[in-house]
Structures are given as C-alpha cells and as structure tokens.
Amino acid sequence: MSIRVTGKATRGMVALTVVAGLALGVAGCGGGGGDDAKKPDHTASAPASGGSNPSTQEGQSDTPLAELKGSDGLLLQITSAQRDSGGFVTVNGNLKNDGANSAAVPSALSGNETEIIRNGRSLGGATLVDPQGKKRYYVLRDTEGRPLTTTGFSTLKAGENLAVFMQFPAPPANVSEVDFQLPTFSAATIKISG
Question: Which of 37, 149, 189, 193 could form a disulfide with 123 if both were Cys (CB 3.0 to 4.6 A apart)?
C-alpha cells in the first residue's frame, strides 16, 4: 500500500513541476516567428524520478494494449497509456527478451537528439503521433535534458523482463487513440485512458 501512495505522491509532484515548468517556459517565450510547424514544443521542466523506475503500473489489465516486435527477439508490451490531469500521458509497458540468447538493447531507442543521448541509454526516441491532428509528441525531459522515461539499461538476458515507462505531453482531450513509435520496433495504435 505504501508503494502505491508513494507512486501517486511522486506522480503528483512530477505533474506539479511539469505545470510550473510549462508556465515558466511560456512566460519566457518571446513569441518570435520560429518554425513551430515543423517541430511542436515538447519540453518541460520536471525532476528526474529515479530514471529507471516506472512512475506507476496501476490500472493495467492483463491484456496489453499493444505488442511491438523489435530486433534480436525484443518485445515491447504496452500495458497502459494514462492521461494525467497535469497535462501529460504516461505510457507503461514491459520490455522483454523473447529470444534464446542475451540481447543488447539498441542504442537507437534513445533517439537521435544530442541532449537525450548525452544522458545515456533510454527510451527517449519514443513518440506518440496524433494522425488526425497531424502532430507528433516527443518524450518529455527535465531541466537538465534527461528524458522522463526508463533509463540505464543495455542488455537483457534471455527471458528477462524490464518494466518501462515514458511520459509525453498530452494530446487534446478529444484524442483517444495515437500511434506509438519506437525506433527499431514495429508501430502500433494505442488507446489513451483517463
């Protein structure tokens, strides 16, 4: 029970910090004519919450929302995509080595943004795509550029399972389905709850 309370308290603090960071970011914008159409604003300030631990795994069913196959027997099961009142979506899942041998987790999962790569191996390359709104949402990061996702893994032994999470800015409230994409994995459409 104390783990669940701690998870909710941590999530609440992250949400509060994200909202405060977004407010400061908006206040600091000069409104200059940048090229906003090519890349949406997707950064926010939030504390790193331990990096490699999922923020919460509650509210999940036994049946995953989606299963994505990757290289070398890697399988990503998306178990939940929860919209939070703080303005973000947390995607939880399990990264599993379904192969017979140990598998090196591809560095491509971190994406190609220098700021994220500089902070080590992560799932920072994940994106959510709203096909109707034609908008792509990137993994949030804290003020030091660390992605708000599971970090610090490199190899999974045969049969090993790793609980993972990723946090994104929330699409508009009327958007309930998005395409989840992660480099080297197949894409899948997932339903957002909450």
Answer: 149
Share of the chain above pLDDT 90, in %: 56
What is the reported pTM? 0.69
Q: Which of 121, 110, 119 is nearest to 153 (CA)?
A: 121
Task: Give the Cα separation of 89 and 139 in Å (integer).
Answer: 10
Query: What is the model's pLDDT at position 55?
Result: 41
- Amino acid at residue number 7: G
Side by side, which strands form the sheet with 177-181? 135-138, 127-130, 177-181, 188-191
Site of tokens 């996702």? 149
Residue among 164, 172, 169 nearest 76 (CA): 164
Considering only CA atoms, which of 160, 44, 161, 163 is closest in space to residue 92?
A: 163
Query: Per-residue pLDDT averaged across 135-155, rounded?
Result: 93
**Token pair listed for 178:** 């998005």
Backbone angles phi and psi of 103, in degrees to 5 = -125, 130
Counting Cβ atoms within 10 Å, is residue 33 exposed (0-12), middle (13-18) or buried (19+)? exposed
DSSP 27: H
